[in-house]
Amino acid sequence: MNKKANRRAFFVCLFIGLMYASVVFRLPEKMNIARISGEKKIMPSSVVGSVQKTNHDISLPEVPASIFKNQPAESESPKVAPHQPEPQLPPAAQRIVKLDDKTIEPNFFISLPLVVYAIKEGLIEREGLIFVHKEGYNTVNCKKPIDILRDKDEQGLKAIARLIGKRQSLDFLKKEGIVLNQDMEIEKIITGVGYSVEKEKLLSIYNKHVSEDFKDLFPYVIQGTAVVKTKQGFEFSKAREGQGADHAKMEDQEWTMPNLINLSVRAAVEKLALHTSKIKVYGNGNVVEQNPRAFERTRGETECAIYGRTAR
Questions:
Q1: What is the distance in angstroms between the CA of the first residue and the CA of the last residue of the chain?
Q2: In whole angstroms, what is the distance from residue 65 CA to residue 176 CA?
Q3: Is the pLDDT score of 289 beyond 90?
Q4: Strand order across the beta sheet in which 220-222 lies
Q5: pLDDT over 90 (residue 259)
């Protein structure tokens, strides 16, 4: 038994001695296989103990600095260009009429024959009132078609366009040789925005449809360009200062504000329409308040307001 125990102790001591010898002479590191790429060496990790890695142990490939240009930092979110709103076009009456030798962006020049056509066809009434647009709750403006044309009232023309209808407008222009895209909005058709027509065709529509009944509208001036009536027919010309003075004289006519209290809103509007086209209606039912007051003297196209019983 003692011999077997001594033999075991001998082999255990021998094994321990070999382990210490391997550590002293770094045999595991010398026997390990390391990948070598050129002159760059990567230190393999040892199974015995940990090896501290330094900047000299591992070398990284050189990377050109140019690839980092315009790259956001990891902690920073990429910059997004601010949203730029689409430029809004000015109202049609304030846009410059584009005119060359043969074509024109018609602007409000197209609206006049369209409105005249609608009156002749009975689509709207010459002396009827057009409810233009709401300026507030339960509030509307009323104007006659002729006054809408004279004032170049864009909202009023759009209201007329809806009464005429898109199909009627396109068919009328098509018969006169002006073919427009079927998808064009009715408001753009009557305000003459977004398309062009031949000047001769546009003037031909004037000569064919605009009668002497509408002579008070001429010369019809838009942004320095005018349609004038001559012995040969309608023509384009440059607007002269002082054109439209006849309309200014009408503004000087004096009249007395009628008493509208207890009248229905419709009857009150019809009564005021004899003197002015600038009428605002608030509410409905019978009139309980009016401005200007009854029997007050006023002049020209005075703006009037009537308040119905249900006005808020």
A1: 120
A2: 69
A3: yes
A4: 220-222, 225-230, 233-238
A5: yes
Task: Write phi, then psi, for 202 (nearest 5 degrees).
Answer: -65, -45
State the number of CA atoms in the 13 A half-sphere of 274 facing the CB.
Answer: 8
**What pLDDT, in 10s, does the model give residues 179-234?**
999 999 999 999 999 999 999 999 999 999 999 999 889 989 888 888 998 888 99
* Closest C-alpha among 250, 247, 303, 300 to residue 278: 303
The CATH number for 254-308, chosen from 3.90.190.20, 2.30.30.40, 3.40.190.10, 3.30.10.20, is 3.30.10.20
> How many whole angstroms separate alpha carbon 216 and alpha carbon 200?
23
**Alpha-carbon span 234 to 245, nearest angstrom:** 20
Question: What dotted CATH number matches 92-240?
Answer: 3.40.710.10
From 305, 306, 303, 258, select the one nearest 286 (Cα to Cα): 306
Give this prediction's pTM: 0.54
Measured distance CA(13)–CA(307) in Å, rounded: 118
pLDDT digits (tens, 9 = 90+) for 78-122: 455 554 554 454 555 555 555 567 899 999 999 999 999 999 999
Place of tokens 């009668």: 211
**Domain boundaries defined on the chain:** 92-240, 254-308
